[in-house]
Structures are given as structure tokens and as C-alpha cells.
């Protein structure tokens, strides 16, 4: 057993891998939340339910429609994004100009209804989803065994998060999105359909949660509670990174996953609370978050 200064390197790197995988999901979910709040000023408490819908969508597609993982990875996020578009048009838009508390309560209610519906239909016990054949197996590294599917999660999350950041921060489309939320009247004067842009942005943020749900299905049990168990942690991560900060959501999600993994190794009793402890410290020192801007 390899040790260094009394530290079991196999155990340490194993927990770091778990933390990095969790951080990949944290980054995707917090990125979706940051897009929706940062660009639209809507607090979407249904993001965890959309993550759950992504996992259930992949499970239903495989078991009832014969759609494999790779096709589900494309189709299910599109379907979840379409559900998000419908929610925005029918329920969120009428209260979009009210206090943020209204959208929080509305989306929280939607999340509870979806969770209750799926619990009624499928029960509360988790259901397995097989790892695709192409990603079974793994690689033996010097201090750990790296399963291929876990490596895929990390790479796919990094590519999607990096591509989303580049699109919003570095392209003309991203400039239109930012300008449309800051001064919609001016953008409409230039012929930009701002309401459509808002709807598509909301749908894209929700689709990111669906994408994370599909990738999570082979790792965690597919259950109605999987989104609610994760959402509070993701909200804490968004607060740490800075509400509305796109890059902050990505970096903080990955960073907090690693911190959580290290805590599980050195002091397991604190692993469920360490992220909230970090949130308290950050808010005391920098209320706007690590990457947020003061109002």
C-alpha cells in the first residue's frame, strides 16, 4: 500500500476522483443556475427537478423506447430544455417583473410537484442504469484506478462548461444576451426579439441540468429524490462563486467538489457541511461571492 507521510495515497486519490466527479455535476448545475439568474434574474429552484428529469428521461428512453445512452445524451437535454421553455412561457413569464421571491416560490412548487409525481409513478427506491459498453473498464494509474466512465464525466463536463462560458463571454450571441437583459428596449429597437431570447436562454439553462442528469444516471441511482438532495448544495456553490457569475459557477463547482473529496478523506464527519461552512466564511468576507460584483 503506497503511503506518504502517513497518508494512504490510494485512498486520497480515490476521494479526489470522487470529489472531481461530484464537482463536474456541481459545475453543470450551478452553471445553469448562474445563466438563468445572471442573465434573466430568475431564481430557478426547479433546477434539481430538471436534473432528475434528465436521469429519468435516459432511463425511460432505454427501457421503453430502446434509445441508447449516446442518443439520450442528445435527445433528453433537448426534451428537458423544451419543458423549461414551456414553463418559462406559461408560468414564469407572467411574474418575471415581480420580486425574485415569487419566481423562487413558483419554481420550488414546480419541483415539489414533479418530485411527487415521479415518486407516485416509480416509487422512491433508486433504479439502475447501465454504463454504455464503450465506457466500461478503466485505466490503472500509479496511485488509483480510473474508470473510463468517470473520466468521460470529467471531460464532457469540462467541454460543455468551457464551451458555454466561451459562448456567453466571448461571442456576439453572448453580447446580445447580456445586452438584452440589461436594456431590452434598446435591443428591441435594433430588431432583436428579446422575449424569444429570454425563453431560449431559460431553456438552455434547464437543458444543462438535463444533460447532467443523463450523465449521472449510470453513476447514481435514478430516483425522484436525486435532484432535491443536490439542489441545496448547488445553490450554496452559486452563492460562493457569486450569483450570476458564469465563470465563478464553473470554477467554484469544481473546486467545492475537490474540497468535499479531501474532507471525506481527512475528516469524513464534516464532508456534508464543509461547503456550507465555506459559504458562511465567504459571505462574511466577500458578500458578493468570490467572483461576484458588488451591487
TrEMBL record:
Sample GO molecular function, one term: transmembrane transporter activity
TM regions (residue ranges): 12-35, 67-87, 99-118, 149-168, 189-218, 230-254, 266-285
One Pfam entry name: BPD_transp_2
Gene Ontology CC terms, in alphabetical order: plasma membrane
Domain of life: Bacteria
Main location: membrane
Gene Ontology biological process terms from the UniProt entry: amino acid transport
Keyword entries, A-Z: Amino-acid transport, Cell membrane, Membrane, Transmembrane, Transmembrane helix, Transport
Membrane topology: Multi-pass membrane protein
Cellular compartments annotated: Cell inner membrane
Presence of keyword Transmembrane helix: yes
InterPro entries: ABC_transp_permease, BCAA_transport_permease
The UniProt record lists the keyword Membrane: yes
Family: Belongs to the binding-protein-dependent transport system permease family. LivHM subfamily.
PANTHER family: ABC TRANSPORTER ATP-BINDING PROTEIN, BRANCHED-CHAIN AMINO ACID TRANSPORT SYSTEM PERMEASE PROTEIN LIVH
Stated name of the protein: Branched-chain amino acid ABC transporter permease
Organism (species): Marinobacterium nitratireducens
Amino acid at each position: 500500500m503506497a503511503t506518504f507521510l502517513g497518508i494512504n495515497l490510494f485512498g486520497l486519490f480515490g476521494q479526489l476522483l470522487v470529489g472531481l466527479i461530484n464537482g463536474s455535476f456541481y459545475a453543470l448545475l450551478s452553471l445553469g443556475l448562474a445563466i438563468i439568474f445572471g442573465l434573466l434574474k430568475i431564481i430557478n429552484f426547479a433546477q434539481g427537478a430538471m436534473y432528475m428529469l434528465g436521469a429519468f428521461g435516459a432511463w425511460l428512453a432505454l427501457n421503453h423506447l430502446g434509445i441508447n445512452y449516446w442518443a439520450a445524451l442528445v435527445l433528453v437535454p433537448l426534451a428537458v430544455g423544451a419543458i423549461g421553455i414551456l414553463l418559462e412561457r406559461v408560468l414564469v413569464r407572467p411574474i418575471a417583473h415581480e420580486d425574485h421571491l415569487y419566481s423562487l416560490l413558483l419554481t420550488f412548487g414546480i419541483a415539489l410537484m414533479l418530485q411527487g409525481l415521479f415518486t407516485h409513478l416509480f416509487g422512491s427506491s433508486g433504479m439502475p442504469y447501465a454504463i454504455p459498453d464503450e465506457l466500461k473498464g478503466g485505466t490503472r494509474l500509479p496511485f488509483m484506478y480510473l474508470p473510463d466512465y468517470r473520466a468521460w464525466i470529467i471531460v464532457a463536463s469540462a467541454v460543455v462548461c468551457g464551451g458555454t462560458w466561451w459562448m456567453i463571454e466571448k461571442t456576439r450571441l453572448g453580447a446580445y444576451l447580456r445586452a438584452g437583459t440589461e436594456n431590452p428596449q434598446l435591443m428591441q429597437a435594433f430588431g432583436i426579439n428579446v422575449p424569444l431570447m429570454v425563453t431560449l436562454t431559460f431553456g438552455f439553462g434547464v437543458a444543462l441540468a438535463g444533460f447532467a442528469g443523463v450523465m449521472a444516471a449510470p453513476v447514481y441511482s435514478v430516483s425522484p429524490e436525486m435532484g432535491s438532495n443536490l439542489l441545496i448544495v448547488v445553490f450554496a456553490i452559486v452563492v460562493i462563486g457569486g450569483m450570476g457569475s458564469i465563470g465563478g459557477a464553473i470554477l467554484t463547482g469544481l473546486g467545492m467538489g475537490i474540497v468535499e473529496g479531501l474532507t471525506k478523506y481527512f475528516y469524513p464527519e464534516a464532508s456534508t457541511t464543509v461547503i456550507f461552512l465555506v459559504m458562511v466564511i465567504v459571505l462574511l468576507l466577500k458578500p458578493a461571492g468570490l467572483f461576484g460584483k458588488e451591487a
